[in-house]
Structure formats: C-alpha cells, structure tokens
Amino acid sequence: xxxxxxxxxxxxxxxxxxxxxxxxxxxxxxxxxxxxxxxxxxxxxxxxxxxxxxxxxxxxxxxxxxxxxxxxxxxxxxxxxxxxxxxxxxxxxxxxxxxxxxxxxxxxxxxxxxxxxxxxxxxxxxxxxxxxxxxxxxxxxxxxxxxxxxxxxxxxxxxxxxxxxxxxxxxxxxxxxxxxxxxxxxxxxxxxxxxxxxxxxxxxxxxxxxxxxxxxxxxxxxxxxxxxxxxxxxxxxxxxxxxxxxxxxxxxxxxxxxxxxxxxxxxxxxxxxxxxxxxxxxxxxxxxxxxxxxxxxxxxxxxxxxxxxxxxxxxxxxxxxxxxxxxxxxxxxxxxxxxxxxxxxxxxxxxxxxxxxxxxxxxxxxxxxxx
Length: 371
Known about the structure:
Order of helices and strands: HHHHHHHHHHHHHHHHHH
C-alpha cells in the first residue's frame, strides 16, 4: 500500500513539476493566454506510462484485458474504441502500450480543457489524484475517455459554439454510446437556478433523501435503457456488488459529503473571485452540482450511478479551484479552512487506498502477475 501511495503521489508531483518547467508562471489568472499543447505532452506521457503499466485496476479491466488478447467481446464495440484496439492488435503490440495509449488520450483531453486556466493545473491535478477519480479511468475505460472529451468540449459551451460541441460529443460517442446523453448539457449548464447556494443545498438534501429510498430495486426497469446506452456488459451480480462496494460508504461517504457542502458554502465567494471567468465558472459549478446529486442519490444503484459518472470529475476540479481561492486570499480564517479542506481530501485518498477486500486502487505493475 505504501508503494502505491508513493507511485501515485510521485506521479502527481512529477506532472506538476514538468508543467512548471514549461514556464507555467507565465500564465497567471486572467492573463488571456493559452498554455501550449507541446508543454502538455511530457506530463501526459508520464501519466500514460504509469497507467499503462498498472494491472488489475477494476471490475471492467479484465474484460478489456482479455478482449484485447483473445477478442472475447460478446457485443458490438463503438467504432472509435474498436479502431484503437484493432490497430494495436494488428501490430501485435503489448497490452501495456494499448492501455498506455488510451491513458494518454484520456489525460490529454482532460488537460486540454484547462489550457486557458493553466494557473489551475497544479491545484486541479492535485485534487484529481487525491480524489482517486483518475484511478477509475482504466476500469471504465470507454466512458472515462468520453468524459475527458466532455471536459475538453466545455470550451465550446463557454464560447457558445454549438456545432463544435456537437462534433465533440459525436467523437465521445465513438468511444461510449452513452455519451448521447451529453447533448442536452449544452443547455442545462446555463440554468441559473443551479447557481444559487441555497438551491444547491436543497439539491444536496434531496439527494440524501433519495439515497434513503430503495432505488436499487428499480434496476430492472432501467436495464433495457442501460443496454442501449452501452452499459449492458456490467450487469451481472458479482460485478454490480464490487462496483457498489467501491463507490464508498460510511465515514468515507460522510467525508465526501462534507467536501461537497464546503464547496457549496463557498460558491458565492468563488463566483466573485472568478468574476472575469464568470461564464466558465458557472458551467463548471453546474456540472459539479449535477455530479454531486448523482453521486449521493444513486450510490446504491449501479444503473443510475453510471450515467452520472460523466460529471463526477467536476467535484475535484471545483475543489482545486477552492484551494486556489483560499491560497490567494490569505486570512487566518481562510488558512484554517484551507488546511481542513485539504485534510478532508487527503482523508478521501486514504479511505480509497484502504477500501475493502476488492480494492482496485492499489498499484501493481503488469509484470508482477507473471513473475
């Protein structure tokens, strides 16, 4: 476990360091400058190497692993993902290169989404790793790839370029057909009602109430829709139970909900702080609220939880933005809140590292399986 922590935090530190070597200081807040793509390549390659070599990382991983080696897929795969798989298979390339290439695309699209706010890179990368969200990217590979394309596509929502957004989502659908549900996001993120702190708290309370209901009993009602969206290959009882176990519960869930409440409580101050980026911030915050709702309300129901997985990453992004705000507005109160908030995020990291008998967070190199 200590080795896993060292590898993950070491990779996080190396990525941030390499970005700083790319003259990150020249891209401060409100600089109206875009971080060069070439300066993203090396940190993305670092990420790709580590995650390409990572083995046994989740419920779905072995399905992808065995399908790559033996073509065991029992259903149609989206053409974009099939193209990547066939290209690597036809060239008889090692599965670590295959998974590494996918990891590279994932992190590259994610990073491209924040090129205009490069000053946030150290904070967002830190919270991404400490939240352990990126550790699931090589498990639900196809949807995670589509999620990272969504992160990139937010630029087109901000710039009000619907055609480019539609094209980006069509690209995402080449990796997971469920990305079709992302088309309405272009309009939903502009709903002003989600930006109210008190409405956000009401959404939080509503999600907690729904969580107390036996929504998992309605899985059968959504199974057919889930199959159409590309989720049909995960609904056997073993996979579902393991997936639910890894969504977190008990103290871990309490810590995560506390983080959500802190973000909501500071939302008005964040809006004022990011006033020069008001449209972009509102989009990010609304996506966070949508993700928070699904994360809390349906964490006992795999079928309903999976579609909300597209928005789960945004709590880590908003958390990074809050830490940046607290760091730049130094008062005794803000310094205290910053330390407590970072402590809560670190606790989620530790909780994930220690999560149950089916812990897929622990790092193993692929060659360990063959020694």
